[in-house]
Amino acid sequence: MGAPVVVNNMNTEELQQTTTALMAGDKGLLAMDESLPTCNKRFQEAGIPQTEEYRRKYRQLIVTTPNLGEYISGAILFDETVYQSTDDQVLFMDVLHRAGIIPGIKVDEGTVEMPGHPKEKITRGLDGLTERLNNYYGLGARFAKWRAVITIGEGIPSDENIAANTKLLARYALLCQQADIVPIVEPEVLMDGDHTIERCYEVTEKTIKVLFTQLQAEGVYLPGLILKPNMVIAGKDCPVQKSTDEVATATVNCLLASVPPEVGGVAFLSGGQSPQEAARHLHAMHVKFDDKLPWPLTFSFARALQQPALELWKGKDENVKAAQDMLYFRASMASAARAGQYSVDIDN
Q: What is the model's pTM?
């Protein structure tokens, strides 16, 4: 066996192997990396106590869901979750490994207002990132995630905001790869607002093109990288909402125009869509365009996988099985969508 291929201080062979495993079959990614404020907000809405122990119980419910690895290849965790264990003291990281699910980690530290741009955000988290990545690798994480937020509104997004966010994403991606961790880069164009699908297309295409210019300038290894974009969809307050096929067509055309073919994979965020909407859109992309896609196209959903299970659980032990059954079902529906075999008739 030859020595590993090392380019730009990174093991490209390992990066490609991890990426291939994450994008394999008809599986996708489960985003369970909500920050503490976001997780507590969801708990409050569902009437669940907002404590570390209830967050542990909820994450235990997710990672111990029987056979989840049939449909989920990787799970993105939050820092708190990396160190938590089951009731019988098995680390969640180990539970995932045994289930055939690769653990990943959210490494950004949230968004702040961009100086001089009061309506726009940039993401924090580069300080000390190499040390954190090395620590997470030692704990078993093999991929990471960083989310940038692009807001559509009057006069925004600005070129400066897109440039700042994509530069941070590119720097993060390089540091990940130098730590043998596959980076998921997430430039989310938010659904908030009343903008049209055409405006979403324009902003998404521009953002992704600038992102890949920055990634290539940093020397990031594209086959060892996963893009996590939004779907191209009208703002949720827009009076004109397009059909499933129109969203699928706009989204794939936008990606074909902006994402280099050598990228390791594309995994969509759900971005506030209902579970059924997100599944319908992903299904339509595969039915209409499967033979035109140069990269694997899958899901990296959070709410669209978890929310129905959370609402069933309600923080009660007696509801764990029903909640796990729902999570497994939602994962199976997302996987069916990736396979182009989803149907609203089976999703009820």
A: 0.96
